[in-house]
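Q: Hi! Curious about what Thiol-disulfide isomerase looks like structurally. Here's the sequence.
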Amino acid sequence: MFSLSSRRHARARAVAAVSLLLLAAPVLAGCTASDSLAQQARAGDGKNYIAGDGSVQEYTAGNRGNPVSFSSKLFNGETVDAASFRGKVTVLNFWYAGCPPCRAEAKDLESLYQQFKPTGTQFYGVNVRDDAPTAAAFERTFGTTYPSFEDRNGTVLLAMAQYVPPQSVPTTIVLDKQGRVSARILGRLDKGTLKSLIQSAQQS
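A: Let's find out. The predicted structure is below.
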């Protein structure tokens, strides 16, 4: 068990990391035509793109902590409470449209969503940057059919910092049937790896 002091220090470090990520998002996405990162994002080549390295962390059932807790709105206006995740494996993918690895992994995420949907597994995007039209354009382009949270204010991002901070975009988090963090992938995911992590969470 972690002491109260340890948990407070861990939360403080996590919130600081997430705050830096929120501040960095506009820089990474780019906002002017003269910004080389913006040009790279539009080109989709990913040069000098700052993101996670695809590292995977899986947590044993005894080390998953408490069920996650937050309530936030999807782009369609529906409010979703994390308490509704209980009884189902849930996948949260943090993304935004100007993120090259987010585009690269989009079709794999949709494919896995369709594969696991009959088992009751839920997928939610968590968009940390875009307005509704921009997010919708991305979803049309890549055929994404699962819903996304509109998280420009950081509600979901900061809530997750209490459990396992995303730290980069994209980040994918798998929750077990009790709503606890089962695994995290920092950066572009590998389809086979995420499939295995979902199956592991289903069995635990």
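A: A fun detail: Residues 1-8, 10-50 have pLDDT under 50 and may be disordered.
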